[in-house]
Amino acid sequence: MKAEFDKEIDSLLREGARRGRAAASGATGARAGDVSQSAHLDVDEQSAFAENALPVAARARYTAHLADCDECRRGVTRLALAAGMPAQLETREIATGQAEARPLSLRERLGALLAPRAWRYAVPALALLLVGAITLVVLMRGMRRDGARETSIAESNAPNAQRPQQQQQAAQPEAHHAPQNGNASPAAIPGDRNTPVAPDSDASPLKEEIAANRPGAEVAPPVVTGAATGNAAPAPPPAPSSGAGAVARQMSGLPASTPAPVAESAAVTTEQEAAKSESGKRAADAAKVERKADVFDERQYSNRREQTSGPRRNEQARNSRATNNDDSRNRADNNGGSIAATTAAPAAAPPAAAAAKRARVREAERGKDENRSAEDSERIERGRAGSAAETRTVAGRRFRRQGDAWVDANYSAGQSYTIVRRNSEQFRALVADEPGLRRIVDALGGEVTVVWKGRAYRFR
Amino acid sequence: MREGAARLLARAADARALDAAALLPRVGGVLEKYLLRHRPEASVEEIDGFLDALRADDLCLVVACERGDDAAWSDLMEQFRATVLSAARGASANEGAAEELAQSVWADLYGLRARADGSAAGKLAYYSGCGSLGGWLRAVVGQLAVDRHRKSARLVQTEEAADFDRLAHGQHEETDHFTVAAQPDPEHAFAERETSDAVADALAHALAGLDAEDRLLIKLYYFDDLRLREAGAVLGVHEATASRRLTRLHTEVRKRVESFLIAKRGWTKQEATRALADAATHLDTDLRRMLVGAENPAPSERREELYE
Question: N or C: which end of chain B has fewer CB within 10 A?
């Protein structure tokens, strides 16, 4: 603890000194207090003392003398002040401070770092830091998992939410088999981008609300299920309303007032009766396979999701949704109309696909009455494709009309593309670099998918 | 010691044609006076350290002057004329007296008088080389000035500051005597005197236990009215160190006084503290007597000591 200046003792000593001075001068004159003349310090001793140049022992003895001898003390004081000792001491003090403040060598720094005194505080601090970091990582991981779960819920509600391309390819063979599974959703007609696709039948109202509140959910069109959810969706423009629609509604348990989701699916329901038993058997087999695929897909998807950021994820979802629509269309073309398989969306966004699969499995297990066969779907698509088959050639490239969109013949299924909006800055920059693209886009109008120098662009 | 002298010569920028043998008597005398007399058991390292701290250039210059080296004398006067004159001005009333004093100093240094053995009795023989030659010359001038003053003081009565103090004190006491209107309560007066005596005893006990440096600090600060910076300069410490030392000294004195009053008088801590606070304002005691050391050894047998 720092001692404070004691005013009482200071006053006591000052008063005592004053009285002592007066008493001494009154009693024995100005020389009072002096020791005998022979004991005084000589000039050499005085100057050496004043300059602080004496050995310790000699200095101690002279100090004792100076404490008692007024004359010698005055002489030494005068010499010390004349020699500039206060300034010298000041300089020495500064030099000492600078010497103490000099930069440490590496060895000294290491020594200071490894000193037990430093470790005494450093070890607990490091331990606390470590615990904090671990806690943070665990919390972050938990939050990320929750976020991924929420996102997957939201995306599962989106009809076209897509999984990464890798998973699409992995799921592609499955899509080819889908028509045979008899799980093709009658409500979704591939090739028509306005056609709602069957979503996850497990989507609860809560999940839908979460999905609706998420930014990515804005791009997802309203989810409509034909058979599973029982919610009606506005019929696509080409969808005719016929008696078959009523049959389909009956099969899916929809109320009569519910509009038929897809007319084509309903048109073949009479033939499904015949294939009912065979279809049920196939569905049971497919359920086993798809359960395994679900587990694999979910795992793969969650791994990938952790590597992607939010905005990128949204864009990817948008892109892949669009891609899958085209993918489905192309595959339908390539497979001679096995569009139902694509519509069943095994290659859709992972959570959506998985959910759809689960729904189909349940349907298959449940549903002996689910008697939509692949052949029926094939027939539907064939009829639809026939009506939509229109091609144009622009700038030496062949384009196929699919609904309102034109798709480059070179565009392969599953190929990722970049969406470019007309009159956007991106569009202007692109066509400035590639004038050929502008010619194509201007000539075709509407939505155009072009494969240009190995990359696919979708102009809207 | 011969090695020490040789090293001293080697350290000097200008050895002035001196050899170790020429320096040996001077070095031996200095060593005896400042080290071995106070510390006979000094080790070789201590002796070497002491010899290596001597002012080689100044000592060589002085020894050369003593040996009659005219060039050395010229150098000495050229280098230190201003120093001597400056010191003389500080100790003299006017310029004329200062010049006269300076001339006297040079005469003493040169040694116009002769010793018993016929050699010149120059004051340079007393220079040890411990301090700087300039400082030593200032001390010589100061001593000569004091001697002159003493001689003249026998003829002229001078009044010093202490005389005014004495007069003021006496007047103060006299005034106090007349301002007392009524006789104080005898019991109260007795108690006050008892308390005051007890505190004075305790204070004497406390101050007697102080070491020489603390006593010197009290003398410099309270008796000589020096500032802490100046008192520190005499003690060879920085002002801050002197301040810390004084604060510690206060604490120590208070602790000793209170302990003494509690132990010897049976007072409580509060009583001791209150008595000390009262005494701070009106303790009538002579601190000088309390500060005289138990022993007052003579630092040297003679006022000045020759090294040869």
Answer: C
Find the closest chain A residue to B37 by CA distance.
A58
Strand order through the sheet with A391-394:
A391-394, A397-402, A405-408, A447-452, A455-459, A417-420
Residue B219 DSSP one-character state? I
B303, A42: Cβ pair inside 8 Å?
yes
Chain segment A302-342, per-residue pLDDT in tens: 455 445 444 444 545 455 454 444 444 444 444 444 434 44
Q: Which of A397, A338, A321 is nearest to A159 (CA)?
A: A321
CA distance A95 to chain B (A): 12
pLDDT in tens, A260-270: 444 444 444 44
Reference A361, options A299, A291, A273, A295; nearest CA is A291
CA–CA separation, A425 and A429 (whole Å): 6
- DSSP string computed for A2-18: -----HHHHHHHHHHHH
Residues 26-45 of A with CB under 8 A from B: 26, 30, 32-33, 35-45
Helix, strand or coil for residue A81?
helix
Chain B CB contacts of A13 below 8 Å: 218, 222, 253, 287
Please tell me the distance from the alpha carbon of residue A407 to that of residue A416, in angstroms, as a whole number. 13
Q: What confidence tens digit (pLDDT) does each residue in A275-285 have?
A: 454 555 555 55
Nearest to A11 among B128, B226, B280 (CB): B280
Distance CA A384, CA A333 (A): 11
ipTM value, please give it.
0.82
Mean of per-residue pLDDT scores for chain A: 63
Residues of B in contact with A3 (CB under 8 A): 247-248, 250-251
For residues A54 and B34, what is the distance between their CA atoms, to the nearest angstrom? 7
Candidates A11, A43, A58; nearest CB to B140? A43
Highest mean pLDDT among A232-246, A263-277, A361-375: A361-375
Q: Angle at the Cα of B260 (from B257 to B262), degrees rounded to 5?
A: 110
Distance CA B273, CA B151 (A): 50
Question: Which bin fits A402, alpha (ψ -120 to 50), beta or left (φ > 0)?
Answer: beta
Rounded to the nearest angstrom, the minimum Cα separation between B128 and chain A is 7
The more confident residue out of B30 and A119 is B30
pTM, full prediction: 0.49
Report yes or no: A295 and A303 within 8 Å, Cβ to Cβ. Answer: no
**Set of chain A residues whose Cβ sits within 8 Å of the Cβ of B281:** 11, 15
Residue A221 CA to residue A234 CA, distance in Å, equals: 12
